[in-house]
């Protein structure tokens, strides 16, 4: 079987003639995506214990003053623990990736 020279020249472009001379481009590498992951850590149980209140057992002046003074100490302890919790939030926001 003989091929006509003209037919051969017509088939070469159809077979991809000329595409082999092009250099393949480098593949595009994916971009690096950084994601910040927040990690929740438990707060110390000492900081989250309830703040108990003291009630006067009777309505005498002495009992009310004793209960008031006891509640002041409890309130100061509670305030100091809450400020420690607020400091934890500030220190966590300062620690960056």
Question: Helix count?
Answer: 3
**β-strand amount:** under 5%
Structural class: mainly alpha
| Overall pLDDT metric | 80
List the uncertain runs.
none
From the N-terminal CA to the C-terminal CA, the straight-line distance is: 73 Å
Report Rg.
Answer: 40 Å
Order of helices and strands: HHH
Spatial shape:
rod-shaped
Oligomer: single chain
Helicity, in percent?
40-55%
Sheet with the most strands, sense and barrel status = none
Count of distinct strands: 0
SSE layout:
Blueprint: H1 5-14, H2 45-48, H3 61-94
Quick take:
The protein is 49% helix and 0% strand. The protein has helices spanning 5-14, 45-48, 61-94. The mean pLDDT is 80.
Q: Can you offer a commentary on this structure?
A:
- With about 100 residues, this protein is mainly α.
- It has a domain of about 55 residues.
- About 50% of the residues lie in helices and about 0% in strands.
- It has 3 helices and no strands.
- It is rod-shaped.
- The mean pLDDT is about 80.
Question: Which descriptors apply to this entry?
Answer:
97 residues; 3 helices
């Amino acid at each position: 079987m003989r091929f006509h020279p003209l037919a051969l020249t017509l088939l070469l472009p159809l077979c991809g003639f000329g595409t082999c001379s092009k250099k393949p481009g480098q593949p595009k590498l994916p971009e690096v995506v950084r994601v910040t992951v927040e990690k929740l850590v438990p707060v110390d149980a000492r900081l989250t214990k309830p703040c108990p209140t003291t009630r006067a057992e009777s309505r005498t002046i002495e009992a009310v003053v004793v209960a008031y003074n006891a509640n002041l100490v409890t309130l100061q302890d509670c305030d100091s623990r809450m400020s420690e919790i607020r400091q934890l939030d500030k220190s966590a926001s300062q620690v960056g990736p």
